[in-house]
Specification:
heterodimer, A: 377 residues, alpha/beta, four-stranded mixed sheet, 14 helices, 5 strands, elongated, B: 378 residues, abc type-2 transporter like fold
């Protein structure tokens, strides 16, 4: 058996090595995507373009604007003279936020009346708008508290707005709330899935299309040996992918890796088995490379989107949440993020590892059965 | 160029699409399926954030505060914890995204000094969800504080009217409900068109090479320009039908508000299809192996449309060099136009910049595509 398997593996590696652009096609897009993803994928809200219409031109109004600027979340990119200008700036995407301070703002504040402050948010990007609104709430609350403290009669020991519950938020696992730390581990899994599934699926369909599958069928090789010979190279390539991309994440993007490399290795191995199994399964349903590609694309894109890599699974409708249960990437992302950022081990991650093992077993099992029947017929 | 030959070429290509069930599936079923999956799956509206409570005090006041977190639908209490180690374990296992810790002397502190702290620990792995959850939490605490302050003022004889307060009046334009679906779905249409269009066309020439029909094609009197136009015409029709279906789904199924002109939308969609198909064709001419062609097509379309078009990740938040890079990312213009037409009701004049971007791309790509094909066998 090992003799035949060795021959098969040698043939596969030769085939990969002889395809001169194959290595280029495997590594270059991977590295480029990693770099672009690392820089482009962000939901953080910094320096939101803001237009200010200050009709009060008072000390209080200027102080309020400087609170906005000092937060670092908002950049005043334009100063409007009237409401029409504000409207135009928002319409033309010059600014996403408008702060409109009405005349009499300072007078109202010092007279103890409530001073209206109008904020217009371009809700087109709902996520940015939502987060920006929560920053605005904090900034205005802070400003209000300072103003009230200044205006309160000196005999009171405490300024009223300081009364109450003080919420101390403590972000764990990512104290700087750095998006890159969230996305990079996700990218490692997603890119590996994309590559390994398509490589595996194509390798087999190619034999079928070129006609060399018949030659293999008449050779004494057995289905299991054939499948091992076809999957081991891509399993190893996938492992290489994970190591390469993780190294970029750690060394270039400075994402911490506080977990156990052994847990990572176990997770990667199970995930790759599932990915290879998926590629095999897809290949048993395709006669041509084009069909393989269509199928691959049909499944891999949803698996990629519905994995939680950027869009929380909890935000999906229930039916889609169930669908994610058969998605190996979903489990791998949990494992890889937990290992990178949380440093937890087998005790916590065993359900995800077990799920990947089960998926891998099912997909590989079905593929072997389908191959056996197709090789015998 | 002869119209008869062009049409013959287009007819042959149409037959080829029609007789290949997988091509038909990519052309017709895939857009529907992707639209369904992405339309529902791509959402950032996290409601019912799983929250754990560690109430060390367990007083009437602390319980009242805890019940406030549950009300409103922003949070769902998924666990009641009894120790600091429990908080750590819940965070490690991911049973909750946030844990609220109310200290043992909370009520006493609040009564004697007027202030007391609550700690909110977040699993900040998913930064965006953490940000949103923090915002919700701060909102709840602000409500609680308003009540406490009102009581304090009443007790100390400071009437509320003595304190000038800023009355924040936020108003949201274009997407009043702040529903992320309204923001994402127009972009999803662009992504689907890009993927489907480039996938379909990327194999149209390489297929002729691999099947050995290229020799026959070359021996006919058809010119390179006729080949290009003949091959692209059926796919252009397919692309426009796909676009119409996806856009109709966006409006009628997903209820994304549509405020602009259909004609502008049509013009922009036609331009975008032209760019996508042209790119697919270029790849197909340049790369002879079907496998390599479809791989390259995937990389050239998937990466820019999902990452750099602004369809999920806002371009203005990217580092400056990446922002500059997005200027050559053609889907960016189409996504901007789609959002403008859907949500803002932008007119042709408002959108002249992204439209010009698409026009430039279309001209360059079609020009390159027209020159790419040579009737030679080497």
């Amino acid at each position: 058996m090992f003799e035949r398997l060795r021959a098969m593996l040698m043939k596969e590696f030769l085939q990969i090595r002889r395809d001169r652009t194959a290595v280029m096609r495997m590594i270059v897009p991977l590295v480029i995507q990693m770099l672009v993803f690392g820089y482009a994928a962000t939901f953080t809200v910094h320096h939101v373009a803001t237009v200010v219409l200050d009709l009060d031109q008072s000390q209080a109004s200027r102080s309020l604007v400087s609170h906005f600027v000092a937060s670092g979340r908002f950049d005043v990119v334009a100063t409007a003279r009237d409401g029409a200008e504000v409207q135009r700036d928002i319409d033309e995407d010059v600014a996403a936020i408008a702060v409109v301070i009405h005349a009499g703002f300072e007078r109202d504040l010092s007279n103890g009346r409530s001073a209206p402050l109008q904020i217009i948010v371009d809700g087109t990007n709902s996520n940015t708008a939502l987060i920006a609104l929560s920053y605005i709430n904090q900034i205005v609350a802070q400003f209000s508290a300072e103003q009230a403290a200044r205006l309160l009669p000196p005999h009171s020991s405490l300024a009223a707005p300081q009364i109450g519950v003080n919420l101390q938020t403590v972000p764990w696992f990512n104290p700087g709330l750095d998006d890159t730390w969230f996305f990079i581990p996700g990218v490692i899994g997603s890119l590996t899935l994309l590559q390994v599934v398509s490589l595996t699926a194509f390798a087999i369909v190619r034999e079928r299309e070129v006609g060399t599958l018949e030659q293999i069928m008449v050779s004494p090789i057995r289905p299991v040996e054939f499948i091992l010979g076809k999957t081991v190279p891509f399993f190893l390539i996938g492992l290489g992918d994970i190591v390469l991309v993780s190294a970029i994440g750690i060394a270039w993007f400075r994402v911490p890796f506080i977990g156990d490399a052994l847990v990572m290795l176990a997770g990667s191995a199970l995930f790759l088995l599932a990915a290879v199994g998926m590629g095999l399964l897809l290949s048993t349903y395709s006669k041509t490379q084009q069909q393989a590609f269509a199928l691959n694309f049909f499944f891999v894109n949803p698996f990629f989107i519905l994995s939680g890599f950027a869009f929380p699974i909890a935000a999906m409708p229930k039916a889609l949440q169930w669908f994610t249960l058969i998605n190996p990437l979903r489990y791998f992302l949990v494992v890889i993020r937990a290992v990178f950022l949380k440093g937890v081990g087998f005790a916590v991650l065993w359900p995800d590892l077990a799920a990947m093992a089960a998926l891998a077993a099912v997909m590989l099992g079905i593929s072997v059965l389908r191959f056996r029947s197709s090789l015998q017929s | 160029m002869k119209l008869r030959r062009l049409l013959a070429m287009a007819y042959k290509e149409t037959l080829q699409i029609w007789r290949d069930p997988r091509s038909l599936a990519i052309a017709l079923i895939m857009p529907l399926m992707q639209m369904g999956l992405l339309g529902y799956g791509v959402s950032l509206d996290i409601k019912q954030v799983p929250l754990c409570i560690y109430d060390q005090e367990n007083s009437q006041l602390s319980r009242a505060i805890v019940s406030r977190f549950d009300a409103g639908g922003w949070f769902a209490t998924t666990g009641v914890l009894h120790s600091q180690a429990g908080v750590r374990a819940a965070m490690d296992a991911g049973t909750c995204i946030g844990a609220v810790v109310i200290p043992v002397d909370f009520s006493r502190q609040l009564a004697s000094t007027g202030t007391a702290s609550i700690q909110a620990v977040f699993d900040a792995t998913d930064v965006n969800t953490t940000n949103i959850a923090q915002g919700y939490l701060q909102g709840v605490v602000a409500q609680i504080n308003a009540q406490i302050q009102a009581q304090w003022q009443a007790a100390h004889g400071v009437s509320a009217s003595q304190l000038g307060q800023v009355d924040l009046q936020p108003s949201t334009w274009f997407n009043q409900t702040l529903d992320s679906r309204n923001f994402i779905i127009p972009g999803v249409v662009a992504v689907i068109l890009a993927l489907v269009g480039a996938q379909l066309t990327s194999l149209t020439v390489s297929r002729e090479w691999e099947r050995g029909t290229m020799e026959q094609l070359i021996s006919t009197p058809v010119t390179a320009l006729e080949v290009m136009l003949g091959k692209l015409l059926p796919y252009f029709v397919v692309g426009m039908v796909d676009a119409a279906v996806c856009l109709a789904l966006a409006v009628y199924w997903f209820d994304v508000p549509f405020r602009g002109s259909v004609l502008t939308l049509f013009a922009a969609t036609a331009l975008f299809s032209l760019v996508i198909l042209g790119i697919g064709y270029l790849i197909s001419v340049r790369i002879r192996s079907q496998l390599a062609a479809s791989q390259v097509a995937l990389y050239v379309t998937l990466l820019p449309t999902t990452l750099l078009s602004g369809y999920t990740f806002p371009i203005d938040q990217m580092p400056k060099p990446i922002q500059a890079l997005t200027l050559v990312v053609y889907p960016r213009y189409y996504v901007t136009i789609l959002r403008g037409i859907f949500l803002k009701g932008s007119s042709l004049v408002d959108l002249w910049q992204p439209l010009l971007g698409l026009v430039i791309f279309a001209v360059v790509i079609v020009w390159l595509a027209a020159r790419a094909f040579h009737k030679r066998l080497d």
